[in-house]
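hey team, just a heads up i'm posting the complex here instead of the shared drive bc the drive is being weird again. everything in one block, sequence lines first with there labels, then the predicted structure for the whole assembly after. its two chains so it's a bit long, scroll down
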Amino acid sequence: MSSNYSDFNSTFTEDGGPTVETKVVSFYTPLLYVSILVVSLAVFASHYRKKTVQELSRLPSMFDESVARDLYYELKQMSESEETKVHEKVLKAALLNRGAEAIRRTLKLKESEPQVTMLYKNGSVGEEYWKRYQNEVKLVDLEFKECIQEAEMMQPGWPQLFVGVCREICFNQALKRRYQAILLRKDVFAVQWDLKFDDNGRLLE
Amino acid sequence: MSTDLSELQYNPNSKLLGLPHSSEDVTMNISQINKLTQDLVAETNANFTPQPHAESTAMIKKMFENGLKQTQQQKLADALKSINLAIEMAQRKRTTWEAFAVQLQELQFMLKNRVDLCLVQGRFMDALQDLDFLQNTGLNSSDVFIRKTDALIKLKQYEQARAECERGLSLDPTNVKLKALLIENTRRLAEYNGDI
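-- predicted structure starts here --
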């Protein structure tokens, strides 16, 4: 057998040819590479997300501070502290008020959506304003979801009714605020137009 | 930055909240919660719905009909009082979660009657505020513009009266009353400016 080597292709049998060294690599090496890659990606993603959240949290809100939410948490804290036992219905009322405020904000954002989008597309408002708007939409959505969760904790099965009730409360509160402004407006106009009225509300010449 | 509510007071007997020296926004929210609490205390059903309470509806209707009856009897001052009472009752008795559509319609209907009574009795400023409310809540019929123009003319606010009249005419160009009011207002404005 050894004398007939020339009959075959001798690529693998020539003594002087380069020899390929095969290194023994552990089975865990590729796994290690992959895990390093995944961990570094995860670290980057986490860092990036934190940075984005920080940037977003620095953006000024489009609304004033939510007094309805603060009042609810203040009452909840009071009831948990055991110093003052807050009645369940008061907490429920505060939660309904908070839900109504969240709906009011959602509606305001929805109302202004076409105008804001148009202004952004025309270049009349900058990237920051657009981000503020989108951020606000997400925050308001989150706020309403939190309200629903609280409602579920307070009274299991209530959220189905809670949403509808909050909607009506939101509209009725707006109606009441507008109605109550009538008295104030009368005084403002009387001063502005320099008019005087008698006790029966009749104009004094 | 959250609102400072550290001095929030809670009365366990009345179940009402209070916060002295608070901002307008906080005061408004506290009064809203207090109204909701009172409504909830009176409500026996834990799973309440926006369905209007028949009892409140009947009481308000009775009071309002009493006002209409007094109007027919030409007791206008008493009629105005009754209608004011009916409106106040609707504000107090109706729970905040009762159907908005019903509450709005009811309030608009009562205010329309109050406007007429106010105009007849010369209470033009009161009428004007109610008319503003009606317009802001989506009632833009020519009747509202006629009354508003009339009230503004009586209050000698001719420039505003012209604006309202023209606004009404843009929605209803063939309205004879509005056209007449516009002519009358133009004459009075010229007189006021010393042109006549």
